[in-house]
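Ticket #4471: structure output looks truncated?

Reporter: J.K.
Steps to reproduce: submitted the chain below (273 residues) through the standard prediction queue, then opened the result file.
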Amino acid sequence: MSNYIGVCHIHSTVSSDAELTIAEIARFFKSRQYHFVCLTEHSPKPDGEYLNREDIQIIVDECRVLSDESFVMVPGLECETDNNAHILGIGVTQPIESKNCLEVIDLIKRQEGIAVLAHPFFFNNRYPQEMIEKLDGLEVWNGSKNPFPDAVACFKIKALHRKGITPLAYFGLDFHRQEHYRQLSIIISENELTAPAVIKGLKSGSYLLHSQIYEISPFADFPIHKLIQWYIQARLFFTTRKWAIGIKKKLNEKGVKIPEKAVTAIKRFYFGN
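Returned output as attached by the reporter:
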């Protein structure tokens, strides 16, 4: 049994809103001594277009070519549903053309993929309990959108475990460009380094979540005092974001022009774009 370190929730130029090609992503992470990368390309893309069978086959083929005995690229999708959930399908290799959240999860699992809710509560969304209970896991730290773990997601995992439902916690980079890189990784323990072994390790929970400060199990076992602190910080974040949106709307109504650089900076801070 060996330990392999990798990253999840990675987008290439296939997703339309990212800057690096799949080959460039492989070089970027391989040069930083990672062993695996889990791609999750947008489908539908920002323009509403789904990736078709040919599109996904190109991704699968490129991942295979870029993989070797020391580094593995795992294909996958990020599916947006009609209730604004973004569900990662890690290991998915066939098209998913549905906006129904429950159907999306079923289609991911039929392909023996891993269904993970991305940035669960970053947009302050409320999701159906039935959907939450069907998932394989929740992304408890999104490197692009959250400066600290998602306390609500961690509390949700703990509540589900008390009911006998056992979703796992995942770290994801939500990587679209190099400045999204952070040391949020997953260390799996497996007998070999292959795409099926990576998926098996991530699905079974035989891994640790690693950041510069924490190395925890897939049960989101952060210190309770830190979870409370992050929860309070998140509520302040959502409150000020609501204020910012309201102020922008009022300024627009009054015809006040906000400098484009300021708008971009605020969007990136509050929405991680």
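Triage note (M.O.): checked the attachment and the full token line is present. Helices lie at 22-30, 53-66, 101-110, 129-134, 151-162, 195-204, 224-253, 260-271.
Status: closed, working as intended.
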